[in-house]
Amino acid sequence: MGPHRPTPELPRHLEQLYTRFPFARSFADDPIAALRPLARDPKRAEIAGIFASTLAIGNTTAIRGAIGRLAALVDDDVLGLVDPSRAAELRRDLRGFRHRWIRGDQLAFLGERLGAYYARAPSLERAFADGLAEGGFARGLDALARVLRGTEGPAGARRPPRGYVTLFPSPLDPGHSAAKRLTLFVRWMVRARYPDLGVWRTIPTGELRVPLDQHVHWIAYHLGLTGRRSRSWAAVEEVSEALRRIDPVDPVRYDFVLCHTGISGDCPKERDLAVCGPCSVRPDCRLWRPTRGAA
Ligand code: SF4
Questions:
Q1: Measured in whole angstroms, how far is the alpha carbon of residue 84 from the centre of its chain?
Q2: CATH of the domain at 270
């Protein structure tokens, strides 16, 4: 079986999927719903965005619940999360917090790291932009990961809590992680078009890479946007490049729709005529094309 390539009609079908998509339904189910009210306040949007993306593990209901619990524990004081004078208070307030394997002490440390970073730079955009200029998108993510990990703090700085550093994988690590959560954070910050926030103004949207979660990867593979079965950084680059050929200015335009097509159950991830019937990309889907490969 040869490689499954996108059909020439895929761009038109993706656009149909996009224009018919029930954005309001899926927006309410997405972590970005908690961030949109902050879009006019870049500092708060960035801080809330990095905490929300860090918590973006598991299903959307659990993620939104975790974001809500964190906001309640700090009385919606976003700036307080990174206020060095309140670090001890934050450690105490977040002591009992859990979301999957993420603990409150780790989030308090993240606040400390950000507080230390903001003492010398106005925005994480600077760290990302420097990395991007130096070596491309993966280098930009790596620069962000190094800031957040806190492994380069001043001598005598508090050591990160157990398991903290692994919360921020970089594509340049030996495992070449897809770094979905940091890539998602950058999408939120850079794209100004709905549903994203557009608070970083110096990064061209054409540079963005797709946050490759399991849903986006499944559909990207079945549309021929990648031939890779594992969610590596190489797969991120392959899918992003295929999408860039469709829209060079805004290659991640379809990310939200592809992701929520999977999350919502609109895509059953198997041949099911009742569900697949109205799917705009059915003629492009590996499961339905005559040259079907293994699903
Ligand atoms: S045709 Fe069916 S399985 Fe394929 S992408 Fe559409 S909904 Fe999913």
A1: 27
A2: 1.10.1670
pLDDT tens by residue, 8-26? 999 999 999 999 999 999 9
Helix (H) or strand (E) holding 102: strand 102-103
| pTM of the predicted structure, to 2 decimals | 0.95
Nearest Cα residue to atom 7 of ligand 1: 267
CA angle 53, 117, 45 (to 5 degrees): 40
Residues 161 and 72 in one domain: yes
Domain count, the chain: 2
Structural domain containing residue 280: 1-23+206-295
Give the pLDDT mean for 220-239. Answer: 97
Spell out the alpha helix ranges (H) of 21-96. 23-28, 32-35, 42-54, 60-73, 87-93
Mutation test of ligand 1: which of 7, 269, 284, 289 has the most ligand atoms closer than 8 Å to its C-beta? 269
Q: Which region among 1-10, 101-110, 189-198, 245-254 has the lowest average model confidence (pLDDT)?
A: 1-10
Q: Can you tell me whether residue 238 is helix, strand or coil?
A: helix
